[in-house]
Amino acid sequence: MAAGIFFQFAGKLTPLGLLLVGALALFNYYFLTDERFKPARYKASAADVHLRGINEMVGFIAPGFRFTRSAPQLDALVAKSRLFENFKKIEFVREYGCIAGRMGAADVAIVLTRAGYYREVTETIGNRKVKRKVEEICFDGYLVLADFPRKFDGWVTLAPDHIESRLGWLATEWRELRDQFAVRLENQDFEREFVVRASDPVVAHYVLSASTIEDVLNLKRRLGERAMMGAFFESTLMLAIPEAGTKFALNGDEPTAWLASCEEDAFRLQSMLRVLADMKVGETIWRPEERAG
Amino acid sequence: MQDGLKILVLLIPALPVAIVYYLYAKRKKSNWLEGVGLSLFVNGCIWAPVTFLGFIAFGMSGKLKFHDTAGLGYMILLFVGPLAVFIAFAIPGAILMWIGNMFSSSLQQKNLALSPEALAILHGLNAPPPKPPLPTQATWRDFARHA
């Protein structure tokens, strides 16, 4: 009797049973081969390996430097330095990596940063209007922070000069009329490339010596079309070097592409450190106790 | 002829074992214990329903010498037989698979193209001890000084 009832349903139940067995097998496989059951020696994530690989590369190019996924919070510093003042507004500064170390006597940190603002967009869905915030990225690249080997009060900023290259001397005159902080320097090439603003023209002339101007121009030539920004404040140098795309990122699915991007990262890091070395960032021109005061 | 057929029938269960083991070990580059475990497990999963269906087929054809194919004895055979097959194959298989997987590198399974040097770094053979992460309030100078 029981078997009779059973056979009535067996034809329908068997495929279901087979499916269940398959599902059980799959579940077992993913559950049993989970990372949590592995001893530490065999437990390693791709991100961990990637981080160590990057650090090997960084250590090879710049001994004593270290790459970390965590990074210092730069919101306050960026606001203080007026680095991004040529942008209309900056509402967020996000850091997603840091290469830091000491160069001679100077502290150096290269922070992977994205900065931008929120734009409110109104979308019409049927009869309704929905407002939402969209992130607009103004800057994506490296923020280079370093001890600048000159002692001064006040601030100096360098912003790309888009207008002067088109309007020539007229733009300079106009700016001087409008902007009380605008400073003019002797170097024509530098004037064409950058807008210099400073709390005091004396500070600007002190900070931007002939050799520093040459170094900044060299860096600008190396960057090509990209709009570089800079700020000097409280004996600190801050350079914003735009670099779109992924930087120091993990791409485990395509090891060859990953290696190529690692090479690019290494090249960029090397060029940035070379610029800092050209600026004699690591060399002290005052004694430490003098600097502390 | 009869003996040859018997040997062939006995070899049939070994076939999926070999296929699964070959495919798994080749693709995943895992260790042999895991491969054996998985193939045993898959065998259990395959042969348990096959046994079940086989008993039903035999029962319906009347070849089983039970005096009552609708009785309790047959029902027990119908369910206990496949269960026994499952327990005999799949559970030891799962255990072996687990043990084997515990001792195989998770990165090799992800098919990352890693050199022996990279694996040595990964296993901490020549890497410096990792430093503790800095607190979130740390300034850029802290980062530079603790590198």
Give a written overview of the molecule.
Chain A is 42% helix and 27% strand. Chain A is α+β, with helices and mostly antiparallel strands and 293 residues long. Chain A has two domains: 2-37; 44-292, no CATH class. In chain A, strand 8 and strand 9 form a beta hairpin. With 147 residues, chain B is an all-alpha fold. Chain B has one domain (2-114). Classes of the chains: A alpha+beta (293), B mainly alpha (147).
SS elements, strand count of chain B: 0
C-alpha termini separation of chain B:
77 Å
Order of helices and strands of chain B: HHHHHHH
| Structural class estimated from helices and strands of chain B | mainly alpha
Extended strand count of chain A: 9
Helix proportion of chain A: 40-55%
Number of continuous helical runs of chain A? 10
Identify the overall geometry of chain A: elongated
Strand order of the largest sheet of chain A: 1-2-3-4-9-8-5-7-6
Mean of the pLDDT scores of chain A? Answer: 81
Number of domains of chain A: 2
Describe this structure in a few short sentences.
The complex is a heterodimer of chains A (293) and B (147). With 293 residues, chain A is α+β, with helices and mostly antiparallel strands.
Main traits of this protein?
heterodimer, A: 293 residues, alpha+beta, nine-stranded antiparallel β-sheet, 10 helices, 9 strands, elongated, B: 147 residues, mainly alpha, 7 helices, 70% helix
